[in-house]
Amino acid sequence: MDLSLEQRVLRFLWREEEGERRSFLDTRALSVEERVLEGECIQGARFIGASSGDAYVFEIQENLSKFRLGDTVLLGDGVDFEAGFPMVCGGFEAGAHRLTLERDRFSHGQRPDLEPGRVYCVDRRHLGIRGRLQEVVQAGFADATIGAVLQGEHKLAKDSARYQRALETLGKTNLNDGQLQAGAHAIASESLSLIQGPPGTGKTRLLAEVLRALCQAGCRIALTGFTHRAVDHALLTLRSLAPELVLVKLGARTNEELTRARVLFANPRRGSLPRGGAVVAGTCFALAKLPARERFHFTVFDEAGQLPIPHAIAGMLLSRRWIFVGDHKQLSPVITSHHADPEVTASVFEHLHNRYGSHMLELTYRMNDRLCEVIGEAFYGGRLASAVPGRRMPFRPGGKLDEVLDPEQPAVLARVDHLQPGMRSGEEAAVVADLLDDLRRQHQIPPEQIAVVAPFRAQVRLIRSALQRRAVPDQEQVVVDTIERMQGQEREVIIISLAVGDPDTLNARSAFFFSTNRLNVAMSRARTKVVLVASQGAFRALPMDPESLRAASLFKRLYRRLPHVELKP
Length: 569
Fold this sequence. Notes:
- It contains 21 helices and 22 strands.
- The protein has 569 residues and is α/β, with parallel strands linked by helices.
- The strands form four sheets. An eight-stranded parallel beta sheet has the order 10-9-11-8-12-13-7-14, sandwiched between helices. The chain has a six-stranded antiparallel barrel with strand order 1-2-5-4-3-6.
- A hairpin with an 8-residue loop joins β3 (72-76) and β4 (85-93).
- α6 (177-188) crosses α7 (203-216).
């Protein structure tokens, strides 16, 4: 018997919950050192002191964890988990080596009594959320309109008069034609609108202008995203464009930057919210805590390409008009279990895009013409164009690696042939250090305009060690991190180290390694230059599953397209 979409989504939730629980128990059985290598623990967090509210500041030497803003964690000695303090991950300042944790107000434990100077461990804390999301999914599919939208049975419509007014209002801004059309359609929609924003196309700027126009018309807007970072970034951008708007963040007052931007805070269960001409923002979990009486004219979903379907339904229940802004060609939702049903593991943006299409923004203000051509052909069907075609990396001839760093070659494969079977390559790390040294000493590229990304934390650690041995100038100011942490950022130069050189190893890890979305994110952070450091063995793998095989074929096309420079460490 075929399952309905609702049943399949509920099955997805159950399997994710079980997978997370098993993974959590397996991780707890590891030593502290092993958990650090897995990205599930931060060791050696020295307590400095408490800041405003319930925020606690720690000094750490490096952060290779997978923790994101808003993740639930446990602070303790790394051994006795029952005695740990339930906390929430706040911000991390890489330059200052500062980690901020916040007390979890929804836990019933005692307030942390921390000793200044003492060293702690920060571990992931598991939260079972399937029950609440199950209720959300059931309520969503019980709603005839939401159920029809999700199943691809809804007929889209727009208000023509509102569309014309939106064109006039947005036309007074400096949005380009593509942004103007996408924004006007979103405002005029009677139900659903999708805006696809490839890298550097100004989707956050467009979103801010759309929200500003709606609020000026007296609308009450719910704004949501999967992470606190996405929500906060949208609020700060909106404030910079529209100082007069009323902005409210659901949750505790813990972000000082939002406070300085005059963003109000409200308790989602008991707080008093403005009735119109305002934006009420929060994660999908925060929106799910709002009373059923709270209604909005629009719900706007930012970074919807990372938002799973069940989480999106929490926001859809609050209104009858929905604007989804995202890019299903960049990072997708984090899935912890194996699912044979790819439709329910897709983001809500991809799910709806496959049924209704979307307005794609086609002009990027980040990448130069030649880099834009490479990215556009590889990931966007050749539809991207550059608004800054003549931009080039600063270059002073006479360096040791001029052939690799030639600014007229925007994307280059620096080939370092090896057959390393693990998740780290000393050969590639040494080449990365040489490239960084040349960029800093010869070409005078500021360190904050360079980033190095790798798919594995083990390679990130190895590259940092290589930079120290090479004594690269201002190396502590160069971002060296995993691909996931780079989404939303940009640099003049991006260096990518693939690390693995053994085709057989890649066949076993194909689903993770051959992710076209992650490769897109890594390459498209650059404005003028991408250097891909890799062994030719990384492009010879033949994965067994069809999805990975299709992704591997794109890697091979890129291998054939890019100019090669063979290097030796």
